[in-house]
Here is the input.
Amino acid sequence: MLMRWSESVIRREFEQRFQSPPAFVVRAPGRVNLIGEHTDYNDGFVLPLAIDRAVWLALRPRGDRQVLAHSLDFTGSTTFTLDNLTRGNGGWAEYVKGVAWALQESGHRLRGWEGVIAGDVPVGAGLSSSAALELAVARAFVAVSELPWDMAAMARLGQQAENEWVGVRCGIMDQMISAAGRAGHALLIDCRSLHTEAVPFPAGTTVVVLDTATRRGLVASAYNERRRQCESAARAFGVAALRDVSSAHFEAECSRLDEITRRRARHVVTENERTLQAAEAMRRGDAEAVGRLMNASHASLRDDFAVSSRELDIMVECGQSHPACLGIRMTGAGFGGCAVALIHREQTEAFTSTVAARYRAETGIKPVLYVCAATDGASVI
Ligand code: GLA
Here is the structure.
């Protein structure tokens, strides 16, 4: 288990290392997606929240173009010059360099800095520890270089760093919610325009993340295959992206798709509609409706998009069988990782202990459950 960091601990760690207080402390959160899965790379809609687990960076500017970053969670430091960025052998330092590269590629003049990085977003669980690191680094460069902070532009640069420097294909959701999250709210993001709208949680509800403690290999290749299938479906419909296909349009013309492509496309088309309906239900405080849409999302991800797993399905069934549960679904890319549930807040303790025990009894695996609060996006604190 990662240490739970806090602002005061990060400041103290910086002071011990550099014998002076940091000039800035920045924080960028991880995320969990309530609904709208595998829709972001189809220019569609997502409804994630930034969570109370984050990456922190305490730093001070340097007079030159060197960057010195020390990780408190992973061994070691990285040192590089902004004048000569070269790819290393992976690991956390590549995210720092990748963000520097993307910022410079887009024409920003950066200053060097030195600092310490720490985080309590579990790595590899599907809660976007990498997007949190990217946005923390972007926020740090913007602070020391005295640049304007444009949330959408910085999210796009974080995604570019991940796509082109680190080499992981992902959509815009994770970076956008880490940049733009709002405390107490989920964020409806239009992944085409990057327009956002904060929607409040229905009264008396809370969000629980349920980590199956299973991880699958081949997630990247399966993810890229789904993307290709979605692109080919969009071509068949003659549109730029599946975002442009309504369910009526889908029903009228889906016979031109082969069986697999049809199922993949049906998930995306219906998921976009469920996401918009869920945002609408949140606005009117209808927690039951949000929960029903989450349950339907899981069925669609399992049956049509085929990105669930045995353990995720068991976790979802365990959750759904508890009376406190309004809705539960797998969340993130899938094939393992986490489920997310919306539950009645006053029964949080009963829900988490019962569901964890049931899941463990059925799978023999000890899950990890997090009760999450929705927090603000990346900021200097
Ligand atoms: C991963 C990607 C996101 C998104 C989800 C699926 O988390 O990083 O961009 O595509 O999968 O919704």
Notes: The pocket of alpha-D-galactopyranose is lined by residues 37-38, 40-41, 170-171, 173-174, 332-333 (CB under 6 Å). The mean pLDDT is 96.
